[in-house]
């Protein structure tokens, strides 16, 4: 929830997609190089690498764009978000926030969420290529329903982001088939309707060959009013 | 999803609630002591400890029971689950599975999901006391919507478990207010209706003082038929 907002703010300080990392100043005396996690690493399976290459090809004509992904928000993003949407009394300490990490990137490489997202502006579609590691287990051998919900929340959130800063109001998820651990699946989301500040986004998770529908979901996002406080 | 099933199978090998850990044989030559994560650790805030103590008191007359919680399933649980519900062709290797971890316990102590669950059999209620760490961040300062969905999935799943081995068919989540990182909230779930193999469970997340409703949700679980394969 609210991820799209954070992501949008985060992208203010983000590098172009082709740049492997970004340098942000956390404190006046400290520089931190932020790794872009939306790029292949040794834990990626052959399937994930092949899909990644296919989508990178689609990016060449500009119809699709790969989204960079970071573990931490730059402090200016944190400050801007807190200033715009959070009451001063409930602002988290900057020092503490510097230790915070984006949930979907907080697990060790290969053991948690391995994914990369691509956006098609013309079609208002966000596609996420996802490989669920061994630390995402629900029941033996399968990805946890909460981890699946996380991927749906992230992918639909990024799809909403293209329309403006928004927050998740509802996620409705149908679990149809369990997703085997360490397999690669495709999360497809699309803006289906807008009504004023409401954004309706559909999402499904399929096998690479599109023969298996694992999950289908709908998400409702509400565009944020900068004058409206969250806390 | 399917967590309740795994949990039930896991509890086959689980120790009584008061025992701090369990010893399981992973391989013929290897013994592993499994820590019970449903007990206080140094990362627990004063609020979480106070609530824990209150519920432990409620356990004294037997109306409530604390649930133990582990990071890994014993291999017999894995084998039993795979044998009962998974086609032989798609069984994950035992050696690989020994490295798998329960998603909600896979993050470092204090940085991820800190929680303990209590069950009231008479009321068919499962309560989860939850403190979301700094690595569960969605937007700056708040718990990720996927992490919230995970807690709802786990709590309703454990509530369903009391009725039998079941899998999540649907989660419908309304995000009403963002949950601040490092705060303690109470996840309340209750079996509201059963229709044949369908279990309808309601769930909400509130502040300790019950003045703030952060999230409300419904979950549908389907009791599993041992003859029906998942893959």
Structural commentary:
Chains A, B: InterPro entries: HotDog_dom_sf (IPR029069), THEM4/THEM5_acyl-CoA_thioest (IPR052365), Thioestr_dom (IPR006683). Chains A, B: Its main location: membrane. Chains A, B: One of its GO terms (biological process) is regulation of mitochondrial membrane permeability involved in apoptotic process. Chains A, B: Its EC number is 3.1.2.2. Chains A, B: This is Acyl-coenzyme A thioesterase THEM4. Two copies of one chain form a homodimer. The model of chain A is unreliable at 1-20 and 23-29 (pLDDT under 50). Helices cover 24% and strands 33% of the residues of chain A. Chain A is an alpha+beta fold and 231 residues long. In chain A, β1 and β2 form a beta hairpin. The first copy, chain A, has helices at residues 3-12, 46-59, 75-85, 94-97, 145-161; strands spanning 21-27, 30-35, 64-67, 113-120, 125-132, 166-175, 184-195, 198-207, 213-223. In chain A, α1 (3-12) packs across α5 (145-161). Chain A has a domain at 41-166 and 176-188 and 204-223: Hotdog Thioesterase (Thiol Ester Dehydrase, Chain A, Roll). Chain A contains five helices and nine strands, in the order αββαβααββαββββ. Chain A has a seven-stranded antiparallel β-sheet. In chain A, strands 1-2 form a two-stranded antiparallel ribbon. Chains A and B meet through α1, α3, α5 and β6 of A and α1, α3, α5 and β6 of B. β6 (166-175) of chain A pairs antiparallel with β6 (166-175) of chain B, so a sheet runs across the interface.
